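Study this pair:
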Amino acid sequence: MSELPRTLGALKTSKWGQPALRTRSVKSELRENLITRLREGRPLFPGVLGYDDTVMPQIANALLSRHHFILLGLRGQAKSRILRALADLLDDAIPAVEGSEVNDNPFAPISKFARERLAAAGDDTPITWVGRDQRYIEKLATPDVTVADLIGDVDPIKAARGGHILADELTIHYGMLPRANRGIFALNELPDLASKVQVGLFNVMQEGDVQIKGYPVRLKLDVLLAFTANPEDFTARGKIITPLKDRIGSEIATHYPASVDVGMAITRQEAWIARDGASVEVPEIVAEVTERVAFEARDDQRVDKRSGVSQRMPITLLENIVSNAERRALNHGEPTATPRISDLYAALTAITGKLELEYEGELVGGPAIARELIRRAADATFRERAGEPNTDSIVIYFDTGSALQVADDAATAALLEALASVPGLLEIVHEYGLADRTDRSGTVAGCELVLEALVARRKISRSDGGTYGRAEAPRRRRPRGDDPTEL
């Protein structure tokens, strides 16, 4: 930035001296840059998938309207990622009075420090340039956050060094919000902020003033405020003060992926699959089952809907699945790590750690629910890809007492040989396109998909150790009352 003006006099004769730019607010800056991006047909937030027809238009409307806004959504819905991407809509750099803690505009200073420096130095006032990354400040709201943290407090050391009385504005140590002046201040989990801090935040937003240690300070901040919150916390009484809520221009609801395809695209984008040059191939059916586990969990009544099932769950699950396949490939000297359906069972910790269970779910237990989710996801994937093929020969094979051990650490060749002994299994896999005939690892994954679907339909059984066998007989209900014949 060496070619940029370095004094106020030089700044006045540059493009930044134009009246339209001298006092342009950050909201107007964001609006103008957004308009340019929309005209060029560029995405609003590259890398954020699944929101093109829902969330993105609403954010664009909020920015075009120059609103403060809040994103309401459950965990793992890219809220923080969207807020951080807002900085890309800022200019590369803006001029500020050198030494200012609040990025004072040389043409419209708000701090006493900048006003005195401009008055003393005039056109020789040194100018610094603030990059877009420095103009984005993010804070996680917690109950212990204070007014001093967000807005500021008196600094006795400043007073002593400068010879100021404590009531002098020059003794203030500014908090995070004033330091975001002429930028974006993002506050995550707004309802967790104490009420008295919310009042201070509201005063700065609406009136531009705040009381610090008993004396008023005018801070006409130029800042875009963007918040996030859980929908239930945001609407609950006592979580957020009404005046602050009323001053937030737009409430935008985020959501989980609307379709499995979108979810798979997000998971593939975010998951760490490329392993330091190691060859990894994830079959589509495995990727789909992984994603459907999250979809099944979100629909399960035993999973807490208020907490939700984060999109991080299928991401970490896929990473664990790939790791198990990688470990197996290393143990057996196989050139390519190819995940299977059985690898999902080896990655149960990536599921149970992401589920908040209701009382009924706690009674069943996280691991048991996770196994059920895997089977339901496999069944849904099988139905989607193969419909309702005739599997009677497979069921009869197990009904007659045969069993099949499918270990997640077994070599591909040995496991494929064992799976080939099940009548009709390979035919279904290849006939319905679950795997190519020449793809040995993919064929193993396809066979496991068929078997897991049959387990979900209770036509065969599967032990926790990975042994498939005859379907378990339906459990009889315990007799109630005194009638021993009541079932």
